[in-house]
Amino acid sequence: MIASSWSDPEEDEGTRFHIHEQDRAVIRDSLVDAAVHSPPVIRTQLCVCINIICKKDFPGRWTSLVDKFCVYLQSPEVAGWPGALCALLSVVKVWKLINEA
Length: 101
Fold this sequence. Notes:
Elements: H1 2-5, H2 21-37, H3 40-57, H4 65-73, H5 81-100
Helix pairs in contact: 2-3, 2-4, 2-5, 3-5, 4-5
């Protein structure tokens, strides 16, 4: 659903359904937390969602993303590190593509 419905209605006229901006804000606020606290199989899917959203919303609309990584990676609880690093890797891949273009 995120892959097909995340674009703005003004940008993509061909799609019938678009996720509303208020719903997008809730998803952005909770996605990294969900990736950190989920099992590895679900974490992988959530990191794909982070990648898709980053392509459209980072850094403009998703300004708190880097702060979330910092909180989890500075935490003494190592259980959250794999999720934070997986999410961070997704963002780095997108950022690399943006800077190469």
